[in-house]
Every structure is written in C-alpha cells, then in structure tokens.
Amino acid sequence: MAAVTHVLLTGGAGFIGTHVTAALLAAGHSVVILDSGHPAAHSRPLPERVAGVPVQVADLRQRDAVADALRGVDVVVHQAAMVGMGVDLADLPEYVGSNDLATAVLLAEMARAKVRRLVLASSMVVYGEGSYACLDHGSQRPPARTESDLEAGVFDPPCPVCRAPLVSVSTGEDARLQPRSVYAATKLAQEHLSAAWARQSGGSVVALRYHNVYGPGMPRDTPYSGVAAIFRSALEAGLPPRVFEDGRQRRDFVHVADVAQANVAALEATVREGFSAYNIASGHPSTVGDMARALADVMAGSAPVVTGEFRLGDVRHVVASPERATEELGFTAQIDLPTGMTDFAATELRA
Q1: Model-level pTM greater than 0.85?
Q2: How many Å apart are CA 232 and CA 293, to the nearest integer?
Q3: What span, in angstroms and rounded, lies between the C-alpha atoms of 274 and 343?
Q4: Which tens digit of pLDDT belongs to each residue from 109-158?
Q5: Under a CB-based contact definition with an 8 Å cutoff, are residues 288 and 227 in contact?
Q6: What residues act catalytically?
Q7: Which residues touch 99 (CB under 8 Å, ≥6 apart)?
C-alpha cells in the first residue's frame, strides 16, 4: 500500500465525491471533505458525514474556509463543480462563479499553503466534438453543427471538404479542445487555470477527463442530471426513455466506482511537475440508444423512443482513447455496461 496521504476533497458529499471518499479511505489515505451543498447537486441538506468523514460546509469562494481546510494537507482532489447543461444562459454567471472563480480561489490558497499537488475532475466536454475522419480526406475537425441541419435530421457532422458524413474515431488527450457549452467552457477554464498555477508554483496537476459517469447516487430529475438518471426516472414512472436525435450518438459510459479508482490511481501515481490530462473511460463506447435499451432491459421497462429532438449545445460523438491512463496511471476500468446497468437499476439515486 502507498504511504498515507492527507487529502482535501472538494465536493466530497456529491455524487462522484462520495465514491471518491470511500475509495481513498479504502486505500489507506486520510480525507477532509469540503462541500458547499450547491442546490444544483443537493436538494436536501448535506449529511454530517460521508463514509465516517465529517463534512465541512463552505463555498470554495470563501478564502478563509479554504485556507483552514488546507492545513496539514498533501494533495487536493478537486471534484466540486456545477455540472450538466443547465437550464439556459441565465445559469452562466453561476457556472463561472462555482467552477472557475472557486477554482481560482482554491489554487491561490494552495499556493499560499505550499500545497503542490492537485487532482482535478475535468470532463470530456472540453473536446467539444470528438475526433473524426473522412474516408477520402483523412482526419477532420468539423465545425459546430447548425440548427438547420439538426432540424432537418442531419445529425452526423459532414466533412468540411466534401460534405460526406464523417466517421467517429477515438479521441486522445492531445486532440484539439473546443468546448461547445457554458459548462464545457468552465471546465476548460479550470484546466487552463490549474496549468498556469502548476507553471508558476512548480506544482503537479493530474486532470481526469471523465466521460459519461453513471452509477449509484446520481442526482435524479434535475436539469443537471446525467442522461442515465433521466432514463431511469422515466422507466420507474412506467414511461419509455426518450432518446434525442436518432439515438446513434456515441459516448463512453463509465461506472462511478471506476472513476473513484481512477482518482486513487492519480493520487498514488509518480509525481510529475506540470499539467497532465487523462481520459477516464471504459474504453468500450456505446450509443445513447444502446445504453437506454440496456437499462430498459434490466428494469423490464418500456422500449426507448427515439424522438429526433436535439439540444444545440450537444455534440454528436465523443469516443475516448483510455490508453494513456492505463500506461501512466495504471488505471483500467473494470465494469462493463451490462454489469454497470444492472447495478445502477437496483441502487438508490440522489433525490
């Protein structure tokens, strides 16, 4: 077992944070939890403890609270964030405040406390669209999809050269970053801020670009919920899951228990100065329609309905290449989609 590390875990009472807390404790590390209880993630008061660890309630924008929490800490594992697509552009200031200003305060206090290691919960949304190739013109980076194309049911981005539909290929960490939603822009800003902090402080940042995380404890029935939770709520109500576009959009669904283990791996990896990013994914992509069908089968519910609806900020395909995390962090996801969906269907969601 690795030496005991004293960890400040932000967002430790949230969906992913609770699993990370348990995984860090199981690996023999000590944990301090700081969580704001943001209403986008918590419709109820925060618990007093998570896995036996007291929950300190504070907004990361409160410098004194962050400074107090950093005393005696070796590493910060930064999970706290406002997630999801949100309601509309009225959410924009709160996304920037909760995600970017809060991260800036955290980094400033880490510099003052001489805490030099950060594990950052980033996201695949920083890529925007994933990677594509044209059969005739090779690797291509398509522009954002237009509303007129989406309304016409043209969901796959075309080749910028010949307009033929592009083929989705694996996206590596060195792909161009082009966020296409407010949430995505704030996650990329977190990466840029932490990279600047690492350069100036001599610190180490491991950014874990989570792909589509699902599992026990997901928030249900909010504008910030993940698609798996939305589908499950429909099935529990006796309704079919409503799948947007044509259901063929490709994602990598990764179980939250695997994500928690990725955080442990990042914490215990050999320290390397500067900024490094890693895809955290199962390595076995599925379509959104496939995921909906797998969940409906497990729950013996209604078959999914493909609606043709769309959200302009959504991207078509993002398929992860997880090799770097395997090679450099020693992390490989263990839970396949059928097993994960069986677990997910039977466990409690966050109200």
Answers
A1: yes
A2: 11
A3: 37
A4: 999 999 999 999 999 999 999 999 999 999 998 888 899 999 999 999 99
A5: yes
A6: 183
A7: 81, 82, 183, 186, 187, 189, 190
Please give, one letter per residue, the 3-state secondary structure of 7-55: EEEECCCCHHHHHHHHHHHHCCCEEEEEECCCCCCCCCCCCCEECCEEE
DSSP 166-229: PEEEPBPTTSPP---SHHHHHHHHHHHHHHHHHHHHT-EEEEEEE-EEE-TT-B-SSTT--HHH
Using DSSP, state whether 295 is helix, strand or coil: helix
Neighbours of 313 (CB within 10 A): 16
Helix (DSSP H) and strand (DSSP E) numbers for the chain: 11, 17
Q: In this structure, are residues 168 and 317 in contact, taking their beta carbons and an 8 Å threshold?
A: yes
Q: Which amino acid makes up residue 310? A: F
Looking at residue 275, its amino acid is: F
Q: Are 287 and 275 in contact (CB under 8 A)?
A: no
Q: What phi-psi label fits residue 40: left (phi over 0), alpha (psi between -120 and 50 degrees) or beta? A: alpha
SS3 of 160, please? coil
Closest by CA to 94, choosing from 106, 81, 104, is: 81
120 contacts 208 by C-beta, under 8 angstroms? yes
* Segments of the chain with pLDDT less than 50: 1
